[in-house]
Amino acid sequence: MPSATWERGAKAALKDIQTGKFAKDWVNEYKGGYKKYNALLKAGEKHPIEKTGAKLRALMPWIQKKNLKGAQAAY
Length: 75
What we know:
Number of domains: 2
Distance between the termini: 29 Å
Mean pLDDT: 87
Number of strands: 0
Structural class: mainly alpha
Number of helices: 4
Oligomer: single chain
């Protein structure tokens, strides 16, 4: 069951989508060269789960080898 904190965050995100704020912010992010987005990707690359994921993928020979840097498991 989601926590109250999670629920507040989800409702805020939905409101941003419904009001168009998310789209406006994304356009500004694009125009600014994806600075915040790239910072989030870089932080994600350093998360311990990424090291674990690399080890697990190495154990699965049926998965085609790809450079997943910044892809966040979008393989």
